[in-house]
Every structure is written in C-alpha cells, then in structure tokens.
## 1
Amino acid sequence: LRRQIELAPSSKCEDMDCTEYFDFMVPTNVMQKFFSLNPPSVTSHRFCDLRLKAILEKLAPIETIDNPHVPWLLAHYKASMHSKYRMFDNHGELQGNHAFDQASISSPTGPSFQDGLLARKYPRLSAAQIQMIRGHFESLIIQYYAWDDNNLARARKQKVHEVNGWYGYGIGDEVWRQAEAAIGALFTNAISRQSRGAWTCLIGNDHGEQCILM
C-alpha cells in the first residue's frame, strides 16, 4: 500500500485536487452526537459526509502527521479538477474512464424546473450547468448550516462572487439563496437551535487530556 497511499499534511493538500471520497475511524461518542443532532433528512443527504468532515475538522485537526493523538483517521480519494471542469464544459455529461468519478459531483435527477428558469434568465449557462453550480453550493452549505455561521458566510461571499464574476451578476446570489433554502428545509427549528454551539474542541490541554464534548 505504500506505493498507492500518500500521507500528506494540510500544507500540501491545499495544492491538490478537491477531496471526493472519505473513510473515517471516529469515536463512538462523536458519531452518536452527530446522529442525534442531524435528522434523517440530513444524514441521508448525498453531501452528509462533508458535514461530518467539517465538524471533525472543528473538533481537532484531521492530521495524523501534525497531530498524531487525534482519535480518528482520514483517508480520501481525489477526483481530478480537470475531470470536473471537463464535465461542466460538457453540460454535465459523463465522459471516458472517469465517468464514475464524475457521477459523484453530478445530480442523480438532472436539472430541475428552477434550473431551467434560471438558464433562460442567464443564457450564458445551460440548465445542466446551473444544476452543477447548485450542487456545489449545497455541498458547501450543508457543511456549516446551523452550527458554523462564520464559515458559512465566508463560503457564500467567496463562491457567489466567483459565479457572478464568471457568468453574470446575480446568478450566484439566486442559486445560493435557493440552495440555502433547500438545505434549511432539512432541519427543524429545534434541531437548528440544538446544533448551535454544540461542538467544542477536542484538542488536548496542558495535561494531555481531551476536551469533553458539550
């Protein structure tokens, strides 16, 4: 396996293609709390693993090199950004030997009625391309919704600005609003209230003890 698996710190991963598939070994109490704070509508969502990953990164660095005492392991498979861009340029069509990888970033149902309406309003994009932008936005929103407002606001500012700049002012704002409404509908008000402030750091203190999950 040494020839196939590379262990890399965050400083190196930042220059690599985006993370696509994850395998975790996570303490039972963390998983129990995760499922208690996220309803089935969230835990069955196709981007639920990204929410779990964001929470784990909040609790402690997912770095076996930088922090060998963190009680979990992260392994991931990376689909190339070239493959993603090629799929977007081809309006969502899967191509070649990487079709399975590309399927993981496409919608299983295809463009929605909303995507079609926005494509007519913003003709530089097809409905399939808007659907892919929507999916990307949803994958960001579900990571932070109802528990990490700072990172959610930061992601919104960056991605909406990018999409508006590339494809026309306003398209990013509209898709983000619709995507956030869709993710928000997965949560009840009670669950959202419970999630805020529920996750605290697990990094060891001066005595080598870990913080207790609140």
## 2
Amino acid sequence: DEMILSFTLATCLILSAFRYADAFIISTRPCQTDGPVVCLRAKGDKLRESTGIRPSLHPITINAIAEALKLRSKGEKLRVDDGFQPIDVATVAGKLAEDFLRKRRETSDQDDMLLTPEEEQTIAGRVVGVVMRFDDLEETLYKKVSGVGWVKKYDEWVSFGVLSEENEVDSRIQQDPLFAMSRAECLLAVFLHTIEAPRLKEIDVVLPGGSNVDFIDSDRFEVIIGDSDG
C-alpha cells in the first residue's frame, strides 16, 4: 500500500536531501503568510520576545538522536534491510521525535516558551534525517576522527562519541550516557554540515534557527567541520 507522509515545507526540504527520499511520496503544504509566523498558543518569554531570540532547536534534537542510538543499541530496528524499509525507519524516528516534542510542549505550558510549528517540524525532520542516515553519518564521523593524530595520541575518541574499535559501540552507548550524547552531537554536526546546509543553500532556503553548527566545542568543530573532505 502506498503511504503518503504529509510534512510542511521545512521537514520536506530536509527529507529531500536523504538518500532514501525517493522512497517517499511527500505531500507539502507550504505555510503562506505575509509576515512572521506566530504560534497562537505561545504567550512567549518577554525577554526573548523583545530581542527576537528564539530557543535553540539543537538540545531537543540531540536528545532525541541520543535516545535513538540507545534504542538501536538494544536491538530496535533502525536500519534498512530486507525486512525493514525506509518508511519503517522513518516511522520509528518520527514517533521518537514526536515523543520528545510532546514533552517539550508540556514543559512549555509551564515556562511559556512554546516552539512554533515550523520549529517543531525542523526538529522532527532533523531527527528523521539523522536516524535514516545513521550508517553513512557514522562512517563519515569515524573517518574524520580517526584521521586526526591528536585524537589517537591523547585517546580523545570518546569526546566524539567514537571508539577506536567500533565493534563495542553499542555496549558503550548503553553504559555511558555522556558517550551517547557526544555521538549524537557529532552526528548532528555532520548531518547539518554535509547534508542539510548544502542542500538548503542550493534552493536558497533558511530553516528556523539556521543550519550552523554552534553546539560543539572548538576542538571538535575543527575536526568535524574544519576539513570538509575529512
């Protein structure tokens, strides 16, 4: 049966850059407004409202990706194989993203800092994007990290959420939440820099908060972003 995923423009733009994008029939309904998008439920933090600064989308995204890594390490099917299709992976990842967004909404009802629909869709799109490309992103990350001398010399693998021998990575993810979080951060950084940002630049679109990698320290930034060719 043909399944149609209905996303808004923000999510679709991210999905269009995926390796498996052609496996989806995506129905878009771009938001058409003459001015800034307003989330009607949000009362808004007065300081943020006065400065125009919105909450970062990265923490929720990273937490959701870290949770996906933990689920996969425990046997959850998050890879495409003969019995698990791209749509199946996207469904699991999408549900995971929605769970985190729901929890954020509950918190937002208390602190009056709700995300806009477009911000939520951007987060969901990134979570799905990273999870669906786990293997490729992990391969790219390992290639970048393993090619840096000081990482090996000072045994700094874990700061990137990477092991010198990746065959034990699932066990480490289960035992070490900080390791899982570091890996999630770095995978998101690779995704934004190599997948999302180039694609959106081609079509001259900017998502809420932009696609800049501004959530990792300078050492990791230099390794992951400094040399795009790895």
## 3
Amino acid sequence: LGWGWCVANMGGPKYDDGDRVEGCGTGFRAMHWLNIEPCGMICASVTWLIVLYCEYAVTFHVLMPWLNISVWGVFHMLFFNVCAWLALTSHIKAMTTDPGAVPREAKPLHASNQRRCRRCDVFKPSRAHHCSLCNRCIVKMDHHCPWVNNCVGLGNHKFFILFCAYVCFISCYALLLMFLRYTSCLG
C-alpha cells in the first residue's frame, strides 16, 4: 500500500452519524492504521534503506567476490536475502498494525473503573497510555518507536520483536560472513 492508495481511498463510506471514513491514519475513523507523521516516515524510510543497503553490500561486495556462484555462495545469498526480507516484512507489519488503540465505543467491565483519558476523551483501561504522536490511547503501550513510526503495544508487539530479532540476526550473520572472508584472504 502506498501514499496514492491512502489518498485515493480518503472520504470513503459514511458512518451513521455522517462522519466519513478516513483512508489511512490513526484516528477513530481510519480504515487502515498508518501513522503519517513526517519525521516517523523519514525514520521508517531510513530503516528500509539501511536494510536494503546491507543486502546489497553483503551480496555484491562480500559473497559474490568471495564465493561467486558456488553452492555455498548461492546458499548464503539466498539465506541472507530471505532473512533480510523477513525483517522488512516484520517492519511493515509493525508499522501498519493497530498497536491496540482503545476504540471510542469501549466501556469498562466494572462500574467502579470509570477512568477516562483527558486528551482523547475515551475510556482508559488499566495499563493503557496516551500516545501524543498517534493521538490515541494504546493498550499495554511499550513506547512509540520512530523507526517503525508506530506505537509498540498489545497488537503489534510480536511484529516489533520479530523485526528486532531479524535485524540482529542479519547483522551478526553479515559480521560472520565478513570475518570468514577476511580469514580466507589471510590464509
């Protein structure tokens, strides 16, 4: 999904109260969750550029000159590139999944718990926090991550952890490949 898709789908169907559904955003009427905050979009783009450059550098400057198109060369290229694409897929999922925003219609289970958020004026469950960038209350909010341009909460925590794990793995794998190439050049 790109910017064009989000813009083309703005002003979709109407709710009973006459409000239009937004295409992409973090508001109560958004059809698709996507924080369109400019600094976060730049950080998310930089994240993609770093991972894609890492793919390019490992494939064309480490593996191709060292192992060429041998069985081990193809194995390492495929394995590294699949792991990098899994990292990018996890990034997209962490970025476009609702982190656990409290809906406007949420009601407390017990009448004794009537906490309301002062900023977005919705019921605020326990362990929910208001994010000033998403402008929503998020259940089990960990933090707002600029690199995925989204809050990390109950709904996307798994994708965020997967993204971090894949990036850590491909970083260590790239270092191992560079070390192995270096030692093969010495001896």
## 4
Amino acid sequence: SAHRLTVVEQRCVRRGRRRPFLPPRGPSPRRMNAVVGHLPPVTRSLIVASGTLMILCSLDVISPFSLYLNWQLIVYELQWWRLVTCFLFSGTFGLHYFWNTYVLVFYCSSLEAVSFHNKSADFLWMLMCSAGMLLILTYFFGNSYFISGAVTDVMTYVWGRRNPAARMQLLFFTVRAPYIPWVLALISLLMGGNIQDHLMGVAAGHVYYFFEDVYPLLPTSKGIRLFTTPRALKMICGQRE
C-alpha cells in the first residue's frame, strides 16, 4: 500500500513542486536493542562497556588519560580501575573503534555462542585468565597503554583452533579460521596499530588453548585442568554444572 504523505509533501504536490528532501530516520531504541540484544551476554556487555567509554571520551566527559594502563599509578596511587579500563577502551569515535566493534560482533560473539553455548561463566573466566596473562606480559615485556585488541586476538585464536576447517568472510575475502588472528593483526597494523599487542594476544590465546583443550588429554595430565572455572562464578552467572 502507498505510504501516507505528510502535510508538507501534500502542499508540494498541489503546487507542482518536487518532494522535499527528508533526512532518513535514525535508528529507534527498539531497533538498536534488536541489533545488540541477539548477542551472547558477555560479548554484549563488552560492547556496551566499550561503547559507553567511547561516548564519554568523545564528549570529553572523561579523559582517556584516566583509563590507560599505568603501573605506577596503579601501585602507588591505587588506581585499580585501570586494570579493567585498559581492556575496555577501544578509542574515541573513529575507524579504530568501529573496527574493534566489528570484530567483536561478527567473530568473537560466535565463539561465545558456539564453543561456550550456555557457558557464559566459562567464557568470562577465559577472558579473565587471558587478561591476567596479558597484564603480566605487558608488565615485563610490553609498553602498551590499551590492550583491548589483544583480548580480541585471544578470542579469535581460540575460536580458530577449535574450528580449524571453518572459513570466515573477512571484509571482501574468505579466510580459514586458524589464520584470522594473523589477518586481523595485519589489518590493524595497516591502520596504525601495534603489532606487539597482537603477538601478546596470540601468545595468551595459545596458552589457554593448550592447557584447556590439549594438555588435559595427555596421560601425564591426570585429567587436571588448569583453567577450571570457579563454582562461585558459575553461580553468579547462573551456569549449570
């Protein structure tokens, strides 16, 4: 059925004028909720937290200087929040932020939805353990201030190793899953990123994958799992045993 004309459009038609240009309607809150709401819970929380920091910093409500990783301020000034915000801040409004969000939505969410289906606590524990390893690597070997990209590399690495035969559409070409972290690192490097962050993310992802998927199957492991999710975290997330 034909759409209803507005009062302005009706006047223009009567006077023989062309229909005026009307800007497209922005996304309603209901549409935005439909886009974000279908994502798994942990990935959705990461995107919301990252988007909130992006908006606050873009509007100069808070400064990125209060979010970056600084061990002297953490140890001597007790600014503990930097241990978390350095993973959540992906930049202000710009290409770098939207690229990281694109990777989270289309790649990392599939890891939580498939490999960690109904296991949000296990997925969150993987991120926490990986964040701990990245902080140790950054303290001794790195000089990074924001390492959100390294966490993304951890997730893409683990997903690629668990789905070695899968192929993912990356922009305009197809990539086998195990090579996705390296391709993403190359694209980030071309956009001005730090390759060291990606190498640390791949290293942390490999440690988690080995001790979670490979080592428990070896006879010498005696079934011991290094990254067993605490029961308290499972109760908080409502995950069944």
